[in-house]
Each structure stands twice: as structure tokens, then as C-alpha cells.
Amino acid sequence: MSGSVQVVQKLQHQRQEQQQHHYESSYHLSTKSSVSQQAFSALKTTETTSRRQKTVVKTKKGQETVVKTKKGQEVFKLSPLPKRAKRTYLAMDTDKEVIGYVIPVFRANHDVVRGLMESQEEDVTEEGINYVAMRNLFVREAKEAMHVRVEKKTRTTHIRESAERMQLSRTIDEWTEFRKKMNPDSLTHPPEFIIKPRGQTVWEGKNLKLHCTVAGWPKPRIAWYKNNVLIDAKAHPDKYTAESNYNMHSLEIKNCDFLDTAQYRASVLNVKGESSSVATVVVKRFQDGEEAGPLDPKPHGFCPEHGVTFRTTIIDKFEVAFGSEGETLSLGCTVIIYPTVKKYQPDVVWYRNSVPLKPSKWIHTHWSGERATLTLVHLNKEDEGMYTLRVNTKSGFDTYSAYVFVRDSEVEVEGVPVAPLDVRCHDANKDYVVVTWKQPAVEGSSSILGYYIDRCEVGTHHWAQCNDNPVKYARYPVTGLVEGRSYIFRVRAVNMAGVSRSSRVSEAVVAMDPSDRARLRAGPSAPWTGMIKFTEEDPTVGVIPGEPTDVVVTEATKSYVVLAWKPPVQRGHEGVMYYIEKCISGSDTWQRVNTGMPVKSPRFALFDLAEGKAYNFRVRCCNSAGVGEPSVATGETTVADKLDLPSAPGSPVATRNTDTSVVVFWAASKNVVHLVGYYIECSVVGTDVWMPCNNKPVKQTRFVCHGLTTGANYVFRVKAVNAAGYSQSSSSSEAVVVQAAIAIPGKPTGVTLVEAVKDCMVLSWTAPAKNGGADIRGYFVDYRTVKGDVVGKWHEMNHKALTTTTYKAENLKENVFYQFQVRAMNMAGVSKASLPSAALECKEWTITVPGGPIGLHVLEVRDTSAVILWEPPTFNGRTPVNGYYLDLKETSAGEEGWKAAHEKVNKNKYMKVTGLKAGTSYVFRVRAQNLAGVGKPSAVLGPILAQTRPGTKEIYVDVDDDGVISMVFECSEMKEGSQFIWSKNYKAITDTSRLTIVTEKGKSRAIFNSPSLEDLGIFSCVVTNTDGISSSYTLTEEGLKRLLDISYDHKFPVIPFKNQMAMELLEKGRVRFWTQVEKCTSACQVEYVFNDVIVTQGKKYTMNFDKTTGIIEMFMDSLEVTDEGTFTFNLVDGKAKGTTSLVLIGDEFRALQKKSEFERAEWVRKQGPHFVEYLDFTVTEECNVLLKCKIGNVKPETEITWSKDCIEIREDDEDAKKIERKDGELTFNIGKISKNDIGVYEVFLRDERGKDKSKFSMTDAGYQAVMNELFRVIANSSSGIKVVSTEHGIILYSMVTYCHEDVRVNWLHKDAKIAASERVKSGVTGEQLWLKINEPTEKDKGKYTMDIFDGKDGLKRAFELTGQAWQEAFEEFQRLKAAAIAERNRARVIGGLPDVVAIQEGKSLNLTGNVWGEPVPEVSWTKNDKELVSDDRYKLKFEAGKFASITIASVTTADSGKYALLVKNKYGTEAGEFTVSVYNPEEEEEKKG
């Protein structure tokens, strides 16, 4: 009985451990990682092996759990975690080494499952770690079973343990059978589809229902997905309705539109699992035309949810943008949604090439509620493309698109290619990945030789090159990856000039098996139910794997061959690796390729194969049990390129588009395989420079090339590209001028009535703002009658186009109202009609003032000015028009904003308005005046924006080399049919006798035939068929005179000299005559003249003319007496002439000749040992005098001799110690100079090349110069004046480094020289210069100056002895003076007293001390510090105030002691001490005896 109780207790204990283990397992379920069965294998292993094993658990914190088997084997498990320990996910082997990562079991509710299924991106690093854990999942138990421990047991113990095991096994079996009967799992099963949803096709606007029937227990729940995005029917009841009744489910889609075309998935799940089924829905649109794309705008529909129809307007749009690599570019639009609904915001989505963009570190999007912004950070060529902003509302959507071009950044080395682009990774496996990229648009100065691929492990910054030799194909298999690690890649191009910059790095990729990657990305099949189920599998340890299947060659080039195969069916839990073998065709010898290391991926790239040879390949599997049988051979594969270069595209056709763009079409390349795209290049006609139009290849055969120069002639060519490389470029297109394509003009505006009579009306209107790129050829006028609110049909009034902006409508009916509209015409067609005029009555005018001027137009619009022109009114009133008034106002201002542009009447039919605000829009009108008054205003002109067009050029005046004066106007926006129209005072020039017009391409020149005062005025030029390009130039009388002067200079030109002729002496006494002209041509000639005689190159003269610098030179070796005169250079350069001269005569010539001879002698002297710097002196800061010189061109054998007063200084002389030589410098240190140093010092240099000497006379002037320099150093070394007080007065002083006896120092008081006296004295003590003021008084206050001679004017140091300085000094003087007086008059003992007195007993002692003091001191005597009183024994006397005496008549031994004479007066006290010793002779003798 007790045994069964123990068994039950053991079972309960085991169940508690299992529950604890289960609790810890559920802790793992809150993570996103996949399931790891290893973490829960202990419980199941215990239940299924209880009949064969007995489990002994010995557990401590931080220790292993040892499970013993019958055979004595030990299986090491990770120890269970303590309750409060932090969970670790690292898996360890028996040596406590980390071997993987324990994948926590997934646990989540249905919402979390849906969230995970919607997320399509996981962290690549965690994905790699998870994969490593799964790979090692089934290998660990086999490794753990390898450790064996042997234990000795007695027979009794063994029998007892066997009995306990049998009893435990029976109990466990009974308990297991009971649990099986009670387990509800026998009733449950995973969900399955009885009826799956079917795909359907419907017309747009119809409703659609998807149905399905599902079985499963517990009752499964269903979720509907559209393109893997969860459908929330409750959030969108107007669009979706989802129903579920008795396992029958349906999804209704209402009012289907094109965007509902998608794949719909029904996902059902319960605790037993998950199942899903997909149905495709296609929504068709019934229409005759081409079906709209997903980004094409659609009509806005009514939104029943908000009860309105949302209308979207996109303004402030971004234009075609250009950026360079590395820059940041922002695109933005302002979006207006009408009507505004509170708390409703549209859905704003950005697209690139019709692909929606997601925010990342490269892409930032922002929606402020009004403005949508897209920011591209650190541009790369991958960012180039068509960008589209789509604004989705409940009523529909609107889009706007523009292209973004990304230019290559500047290359570091000229000629190298630009960086490749679009690096991607494909076919990633355990140790292998295929890297692809796109070739760049620019190859550099030579063709690209190949590419280098670099890799970097995620989390590090170390880049390793994958290939030693550049690969030609834009596709490369990278091998040797470490399984489970993440990598990024980049590519560099190389040509003959060097290596390009690196491309943008690829997305990170994990080296892992694709099937495991899919398993990890698939997510959990069902939410956590609180139960973990495992199934027992047969052990497969020790099984040799089977052979791989389906071995094929996936890629074959001349550089490498790529094999792929399927893993064997029989491979066990341990995992397999592979050996690859090759065999040359025709032989039976198989050679293993990867002998050293088997590969883990079912992919392999073989390199170093012989090009042109055929090979067979096969694969073997291996594991720890051995190597399996080989697979079936692939068959012969020839090592050669299988991918050919694409053929050249067809000839491109370029057509005009805008002022800066051209549309290019071409025929696609034929029979091209794996086309990457096309690159388009352009070149300006006349140059051979080709520039890329796109830096990212495009696949369509139409492309708009932007960023071109307006008016330039371009040709285009196209080349195709695939992985093999570039095709040949197509032939060049026909040349095309970059200008806007011709279109119909805009609408005319401002149709007004300018005159009316009985049966006719005169109309006027304003020409359209845009002429469509061609001149307006005419106008058509339509009319209709108006009776009240009833209008008639439109009728044409003229069948022939009108050439003016006025028209006289005849044959009308009097007193009838009419409306008019006008259409413009150019070579492209007729424009739309203008807005109808107001209803105008045909009635004769009787007014006296003139009508409104007509034909208002504007020219020369600038930031602050514009020129307004007009024509006279057709109706003048009763008298002729005699002037005009111009009014203007800002466009945004009301009618009260009109103001006059001038005060006085303007007689002209034009006016330049100034003072405008840049960037502000204005409108203008003109009023005519006659004698009756001012008429009504004209039709309003505008709005006109006060802004200078980019690239605007002004008329400039040019004077050519022949003196011809002309005005030049250039236009870079010339279009077909554009002309330059010149006018004077804004009237067409008809008199050709004054001006000649010459036009060539985009430049027109108006040449003055004979400039005179008749030509004064305003000259203007207008370019027709453009957007109002015009300019003017005002020629004034002053300007004309200036131009005539310039013209004269050009007719009779003079060569300008930068420098007139000059002369300089060169080495050896050579003379150089030179000049420099500012500019000259290669035809310029020089004539060299001396005294009107032309001289030529020869022995005496040497000439040189450098035409690049304009320097003209003439050299002479020496100047002789006959060279006195004038030297001239005559220059002739075409018709330009120039002359420059230099006169050398008289004293100037002789001085120059002497200097030349000296320079030549100097050159001769320097051929031997010589003095670079002659002997001279210097004074150091320590006031030492040095004689120094520098020597050059000396040799070791050169003899150097010093002398003084013609007496050589020998080596044994005392002065020889003062001589030093260091680095070509000789020094004689005189030290502190004195008159003994006066003399003449000389230095001699001699050797076989020559001799030289240098002399310095330190006598008279020389000595005085040295002394002056010494005085300067002394003066500069002087410190600032300081003050000190003494008992006698005040001393001012300054310190110097050294003071010579001859230095002169003067002191001044209040800038007046101080005369020496008994009270004030000056002098020198050592290095101190001082001024003593005895007994100072208030008169001595003031400024004191020390004037010390410095060899020139003297150096002054000043000190203000006033204020606090005077007070402190004077108080200190008084204190010291009082102390001195006290010291002099103090009472003291001045002599007469001995230190010790020895006297025999019985003798008399008489001592006298000399005393001094004023007043006479008081005197007293003390013995042993006790005062003595004069009595019979001590007689004390003080006589004459000087002598104090003490007398002791008969001394005894009691008189021995320390005596003192004390003297005291008001200044002090002093004591004269002495010692008295009285002795007895007899006692002394006894002591000796």
C-alpha cells in the first residue's frame, strides 16, 4: 500500500513539474518567432519512453539536467529556468557554447494573427537567427546522447530499481489510457472548405457576392482579405457587407469599380489550424475608348456617407525636377478639397513609375492637411522616374505627375565610369546568392571592362570584394556566405581610366534555405490554444541521404556555370550537404569540385572552367553518416556566353514638345533577351559631346528629354542594355530645334465697343496672351441678337480673317442689342471663342469727348517697369485727340485702387511705367483727351506680372574693330517664323538710310550708317512669335559722343602697353630693356631702334618677344660710352601701332654705366671667396658689441685673417678668443665697449681662386655710430620709472641692462629741466638711473620725465608723482624720517662698561658708563633685575649728563651678580649689562689643593 502511495506522489510531483514547464513554455508564446519543439520535448519524451527508461532528475540553478538511460548513457538538457530568472533564447551545447537560438512558441489572439499576416517585412537579422535554431532543432539530441557515464550498482539496488520501474510503468499506462478517453482532441478537427469561393467577372457599377461553406470544430472564425490586406466591413459599410450563418459565409462588394479588381482570400481558423482559399474578381468597364489606368483621374461621384460630392483641385504643382546624387529633393503640391468636411482628410499616396512609395530612410512623406510633400533624401539614380501624387476621396481621385531626373555626381577621377544602379539579390540560399544590377548610362572615357562586387555583413562596416577579376555580365553569383547571416551588396564599374564610385547598397538578404525562409515568413497557422501537440517521428540518425534530383544548369557563361537541384527525399532530421562533381565530355573521369568543404545550398556556382569545352555535372549528398549516391548527370553543357548583346534600336524620331524638352520615339531592339531598358543620349549639332538624357534605363520606346537649351539644335540616339552589356548606339535622329510645339492660340479677351452709328458698330479686343507658338494670322467675329433674356444663334460676320484687333460691324439694325465674340487663328488652327461681350445697343453716339484708346499691349516687362503702347480711339469726339492719360492699379485692388501713372498729359502713344513692385500683378487702362475733355477709359490690359523673365537680355551697343557702331539684341527662344522687329520711338523703321538691319539666327544687329544727332531717340526691338520678348535702348547726345570717341579709337587703334619701357641691371652688369603690352596677336612685330637706327640681334644685342605674355626684352652685356641716347620699341599689329621709348643721357646714363661696371666687378669678385655681407657691427640686448660679416664660396683651405689697426690678430692673442665662425658667419665679440676698442678692424679672405677683404673703421664717425646704437639699446632696456622713499626724501629710478659712462640722462619736472642742487640730485648707481628729492614739499608734486639719450632724439619715461602715488611716497618719507630722528636721539649706553668684572673680595669697585641721548636720559642701575638706590654701600652718580658711575667700597661675595645700566628718554630705552664676580683668594687656593 505504501508503495502505491509513493507512486501516486511521484506522479503528482511529475505533473506539477509538467505544469511548471508548461507555464514556462507559454512565456515563450508572446514573441513573434516560430515554434521550437526542443524547448518542450522533455515532457513527451518522459511519457513515451517510461516503459524503457527511468528518469533521474538532479537540478540546481545554473546546472544541467542529466537523464540516465538503461545503458548508462547521459543525455544533457538545458536546466529549467528559475521562476524569476530572465528568459534567454540562446541554445547551448554540452560545453556551454552557444550553438543556436531557441525559437519561442508563438501565442497570440486572432487580431495579432491578422496583424502579422498583413506585415510582409521582418527583420532580416532575427530571421537568420531563427533559421539557425530550426536547422539545429533535430541535431541536438543526437549530439547530447554521445556522452556516456558508467556507474556501479549492487544487485540488490538493481532489482529494487527494476521493480520500481515496472510499477511506475503500469501506473503511467493506466493514467495515459484514462487521459486518452477524456481528451477532447478526439472530437476536434481543423477547418476545411466544403465549398470554396469562386472567382467572378462583373461590370463596373454592379454588386458582387462571394460565398463559401466551411466545416471544423471548434467553430472556425473567418476573415476576408483583399490582396493580403484585411477587409474591415464594419468600417466601410457602404462598400462591404460580411455575413456568417451556420458555417456559410459571404462577402458582398457594392458598386464595383475598377479598383476592386483584386485577389480576395477567405481565411478560416480555429484552435486546430488554419485554411484559406483565394478567388479572383475582375471588374470590367464598358466604354468605346481606351480603358483608363489606375492613376488616370475619374469623374467625381456623390458620397452618400457625407452627403456631398468631393471635388479635388491640385495647385502649386511641382515641375519637372533635376537633382544630383547625394542631394535632397522635395516635391510638393497644394491640394484643395471642396467642400470641407470636419475631421475628414483624403488619402494621399505617392507613386514612382506607377508603384506606390512607402516611407523609408530614403523617402519621407508629409501631409499637412493642405499640402502634400515628398522628400527624397540622398538622391540616387534609382530615384529617377515619373512621380505621381494621387489624392483619394470618397468621391473619386485626382492625380498629378512630373518626371524627376537624377544626374550623376561629379567623378573623382576624370574618365572613370559613373556608379552602377539598382543592385538586387536573387535566389538566396544557405551560402549563395545571385547579385544583379543595371549598367550606368555613362561609361566614361572608355568602355566598361567589367564590375567589382562588394559585400558587407549587416551590423559591420567592413566591405570585402567578392571577385578578383572584373565580371562583364551584370549578374554574378556570390558564394561563401555564412548560413544564417545577413548581407548587403554594392557594385563598382571599372574601365581603363579607373574604378567608379560604389552604387547604392542593396536590400539586406539572409543566407538561408528558401523553404525555411518561406516557412518563417508564413507565420503561424493558428492562434495559441493553450495546448501543445507533438508527434513522434522515427529516429533517422545514422541514415545516409539519398541522391538529389532534377540537377540542371540554370546559368552558363564563359566565366561561370550555375547548378541547381532538389534535395533528396530521404535526408533525416540532421540535414544534408552536397558535393559537386564535374566530368569533361568524352571522358569517364569525375572530379570533385568542392573537395574541402561541402555546400549547404541546393545551388552552386562553378568558376575556372575552360571556355569552349563541354562538361557534365552531378551532385552527391552527405551527412554525418556518409556520402550518398550521385545524382543523374546534367548532360553536356558548353562553357560559353548564352546571352547575346542586344541589337541596336531603330532610328529615333525627335519632335518638338516644350521650350526645354523634346519627345523621342524609336523602334524596339529586335530579338533581345532579358531587356533591361534603353538609354537616350543627346548632342548639340556641331559638337561631338553626347550627354545622357536619362540615368535610369526605360523600357518603353518613347521618352521625353527635359532640361535642354531653348533654341539649340539637338540630335538624339538610343542604345539598349541587358545583363550582357550595351548594344550599339542607334543612328542619330534628324536635328530638331528645342522650342515649344505649335498649338492653337488662346482666346482673345476684352471685346468692347469703341464707336457706334445708326447701322454699324466698331469693336475692339485684346490679342490672346498665348499665340500657341506661331504668329496670329487673323481674327473671326461672331454676333448674335439679344432681346431681354432671349439670345439668338451665333452668326459669322467676316469670312476673311481680320489682321487687326478692331472691326467695323456693318448692316446692323438700329436700336437692336447685339453680343459679339472673337476667335483668333494661327497656322495650327482657330482658337476657342472669347467670352461674349456685354449686350451692346446699335445707336449713334452723340458724346463730345473721344472714345477709349484701342490696341493696348505691353512690352519690356521687368521687375520694376513696363512699356505700355496703344492706338488712338476710333471715335475722336468733336475735336481731335491731343493727349493721353495712363492709369494703373494692382490686380487685387478694387475700383478705388486706380491711380494715374503721370500728372501731365502724354502726347505719345506709349509710356514707360516705372516704380512697380517686383512680383506684383497690375492692370492698365488709357484715357484719351480732346478739347472737350477726357474720354472714357480703354479696355483693361492685364493682369501683367511685374517680373523679369529668366534669361532676359537687353539691347547693348557694340563698336567693332572698324569703328562701326551698332545695337545688338539676342534671343535664345526663337521659334519657327520668329522675326526681329526694330522700331524707333516705338514706330516701325521705314527709313533704311539711317540703319542697316542684319539678322543671323538668334541675334539681330542694327548698324548705324552715319551716326549723328538725327539718330537720337528710343530704339526698341520685339521678337515675334514669342511670349513678348522685347527690349529698348535710349540713345542720348552724351551717349552718342562717347560712342563716336570709341569708334575713333577702333578706327585708329593703338597697341595698349601694360608697362612702358623700363630698364634694370642684371648679374654681370648686363642691362635689360623691357616692356609689356596688354594684348597682341601672333602677327605682332617689333622694331628695335637706338638713336633712330634699327638694331638687330647680334653680339651686342639680344632680343626676345613672348607673345603669350606680351613681354618684349632687349639685353646688352655692358654699357659703353657710345650707348648714350634713346632706345625705342616700335610695334605693329595689323593696323594697330604702338611705340615706347627710354632716354638715357647725361648724369643718369653715367650713373647707370658706373653701376653696371660695379655689378660686373661684383660678379667677378663672387667667383672666389667673398663677403656676402661686409663687416658691420651690432649691439646685443646685453649691450655687447659684435662685429659680424657673412662669407660665401669658401673652401676648407680658404685663409681667413683678422686685423686691428693693420696688426694681425694671431691665434695666441687675447683678442683671438673673441672670434667665432659659424655657418658662413664671422663674429668678433668686443663685449662692453670702451675707448680702448677704438680702431680699424679688417677681415681678409684668400685662396687660389682669389681674395676679398672687408673693413670696418671704429673711429670717429664709426665709433660714434656704435655708441649711438649702444645708447639705443640701453635706452630701450630702461624700465618704467618707479618711486621709493627714504628718511631723506623721495627717489625716482629706472633700471637698465647696462649703463655706459657716456650715456646722457636728463630729468624734467613738469617738462622743465631740473637743475642740480643740494636738495635735488640725479645720478647713476650700477644699472640704476635715479633722481633724489631731499625734504620734498608740495611743490615737488607733478609729472617727472627721464630723458635718456638713445643715439637720436632721446627716449623718455614719465611718471606722475601726484595723487595717491605722491601721498603714499610722502607719508613713507615722513615715517622714515621720524624713525631716523628717533634712532639718532634715542637714549643709549655708548661705552665704558665691561662685559665681566672679576674682583677680589674686600676691594673697591668703581665703574663709569658713557651715556647719550637727547633730551638727556634718565639713568638707573639694577642688580639681578632689582633697581639699586644710592646709599652708603652703593654710590651712584650721573655727571654732565654723559657719565654714569657706580662705586662699591668693599665688595663681598654677596655683591656678585648681573648688573645693568638703564638709560631712558622719550625716544627709547637701552640697558648696558655686565657681570660682577667677587672671589676669595684663600678659597681658590683650597680648591686647587
Describe the structure.
The protein is mainly beta and 1489 residues long. 12% of the residues lie in helices and 41% in strands. It contains twelve helices and 104 strands. The strands form 26 sheets. Strands 49, 50, 51, 53, 54 and 55 form a six-stranded antiparallel beta sheet that branches. Strands 6-13-12-8-9 form a five-stranded mixed beta sheet, with helices on one face. Helix 1 (2-28) crosses helix 6. It is extended and about 165 Å long. The termini are far apart.
What is the secondary structure topology, with strand pairs?
Blueprint: H1 2-28, H2 41-48, E1 65-68, E2 74-77, E3 90-92, E4 98-101, H3 110-118, H4 124-135, H5 140-144, H6 155-182, E5 189-195, E6 200-203, E7 208-217, E8 221-226, E9 229-230, E10 240-245, E11 248-253, E12 262-270, E13 273-284, E14 311-315, E15 321-324, E16 329-338, E17 347-352, E18 355-356, E19 363-367, E20 371-376, E21 385-393, E22 396-407, E23 421-426, E24 432-438, E25 450-457, E26 463-465, E27 475-479, E28 486-495, E29 498-499, E30 509-510, H7 514-522, E31 549-556, E32 560-566, E33 577-584, E34 591-592, E35 603-607, E36 614-623, E37 626-630, E38 637-638, E39 653-658, E40 661-665, E41 675-684, E42 691-692, E43 702-705, E44 713-722, E45 725-726, E46 736-737, E47 749-756, E48 761-766, E49 778-787, E50 790-791, E51 795-796, E52 806-809, E53 817-826, E54 829-830, E55 840-841, E56 854-859, E57 865-871, E58 883-890, E59 899-900, E60 910-914, E61 921-930, E62 933-937, E63 941-945, E64 956-959, E65 965-970, E66 980-984, E67 987-988, E68 995-1000, E69 1003-1008, E70 1017-1023, E71 1030-1035, H8 1037-1051, E72 1057-1065, ...
Parallel strand pairs: 6-13, 15-22, 97-104
Antiparallel strand pairs: 1-2, 3-4, 5-7, 7-11, 8-9, 8-12, 10-11, 12-13, 14-16, 16-20, 17-18, 17-21, 19-20, 21-22, 23-24, 24-27, 25-26, 25-28, 28-29, 28-30, 31-32, 32-35, 33-34, 33-36, 36-37, 36-38, 39-40, 40-43, 41-42, 41-44, 44-45, 44-46, 47-48, 48-52, 49-50, 49-51, 49-53, 53-54, 53-55, 56-57, ...
Helix pairs in contact: 1-6
